[in-house]
Amino acid sequence: MALRNVADQGRVGAAGFAEGKRRAEPRRVILIVSSVGSVSERLIEAMEREFPWVLVDQVDDVNAACRSFLYPVSLILVDIGLMRALEGASSRLLHLHPQALTAIIEPHGQGQNSSFGDILRSPLVRGMLPMNVRLDVWLSVIRLMLCGGAYFPPEFMFQASKGAHHLPSDNGAAANARGEVEGVADLTARELQILEMVSRGLQNKIIAAEIRLSEHTVKIHLHNIITKLGAHNRTEAAARYRSFQDRKSSAMKEFRSTI
Known about the structure:
With 259 residues, the protein is an alpha/beta fold. It contains 14 helices and five strands.
């Protein structure tokens, strides 16, 4: 990148470039809808440190989310225990926060299956963010969602496909399909993010710039992805990802038709 070359020549410091980029970002709100204290202050601070253009706000019920905030809301994270209230307020939330992606969180460690049907049936919910993951994984998923990407844990979608009987076990082709799903399910959130970008035809240099990693780190992640999937190259790995996405979409549609 030209700007990076200028920085290398000493005309613009890397820190100054990053600070200028941060200032150029429009301010946005991440809204957490959960009982106060269920999401730690350290986690909130980590989000605001990782995304300096973001203000993290928290309310303790869905009705309190149905208002305007200081900046446009880009992401709404809702306690899984508030699913019913969320669905009841969905039209208001869509009207007030048309740019926001809504995802479910599990701050109290409830089982995913407690609202399994509600989550898949919801026209509003675009993702699920588990709380029992490392901070770097959490932040990677948040970044993906801020960019408009939907995310469900691979193991969640695998259970969905099993529940919908989308992957029958009476032939070899189905067994191979299950193997592909389970392979993708082994990937971390960061690896899924990179593989999704590879599936769109992006090169390592572009991926590195988009997610603020070195190109070398992207190559390491990609090597790990190919190894985990048992693929021969990035093209085959990308095809596996697209197949997984197709199966996930089909599983969700079939599951919704049964509930």
